[in-house]
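Input (structure):
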C-alpha cells in the first residue's frame, strides 16, 4: 500500500483534474446558446464542485494541504474552448465536443488513481466519484450525438 504522502498526492491530482472539470463545465455553460444545455453544464459544474470539496476533505483529514487550483492543461483547454467557440459563434456542438474531451481526461485520471493500492475508504470514494465521471461523460456524449444529428439535418 502507498504511504500517506502518496495518497495525498494522488488525491490532489484528482482535485486538480476535478477542478478542471468544474471550471470546464462552467466555461461550457458560458459558450452555448441553448438554455437547456446551459442548465445542464451548470448542474454538472456544481456536482463536480461537490466532488472537489469531498476530495479536499480527505486530503485535510490525512494531514495534507488540498490544492485549490486548476491545472495548466485544464486552463489551456478552456482557452481553446474560448477560441474555438469564438470562431464558430458559440457552436453548441463544438462546445460539447470539447467538453467530452475534458471528460476523457477525467476518466483517465480516476482510472489511473484506482491502479494504485489506495486505502479502502479512499478507494471507495474514488470509485464512487469515477461512476459520476462516467455518468457525466455518457450524458455529454448523448447530448453531443443529439446536437450532431440536428446539425446534420439542418
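Output (sequence):
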Amino acid at each position: 500500500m502507498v504511504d500517506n504522502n502518496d495518497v495525498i498526492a494522488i488525491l490532489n491530482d484528482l482535485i486538480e483534474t476535478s477542478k478542471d472539470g468544474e471550471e470546464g463545465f462552467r466555461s461550457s455553460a458560458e459558450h452555448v446558446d441553448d438554455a437547456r444545455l446551459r442548465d445542464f453544464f451548470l448542474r454538472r459544474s456544481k456536482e463536480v464542485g461537490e466532488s472537489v470539496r469531498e476530495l479536499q476533505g480527505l486530503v485535510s483529514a490525512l494531514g495534507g494541504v488540498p490544492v485549490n487550483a486548476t491545472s495548466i492543461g485544464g486552463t489551456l483547454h478552456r482557452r481553446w474552448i474560448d477560441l474555438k467557440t469564438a470562431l464558430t459563434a458559440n457552436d453548441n456542438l463544438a462546445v460539447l465536443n470539447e467538453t467530452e474531451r475534458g471528460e476523457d481526461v477525467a476518466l483517465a485520471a480516476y482510472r489511473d488513481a484506482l491502479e494504485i493500492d489506495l486505502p479502502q475508504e479512499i478507494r471507495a470514494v474514488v470509485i464512487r466519484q469515477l461512476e459520476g465521471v462516467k455518468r457525466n461523460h455518457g450524458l455529454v456524449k448523448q447530448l453531443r450525438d443529439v446536437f450532431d444529428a440536428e446539425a446534420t439535418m439542418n
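Notes: DSSP finds five helices and no strands in the chain. The domain at 4-153 is CATH 1.20.1260.10 (Ferritin).
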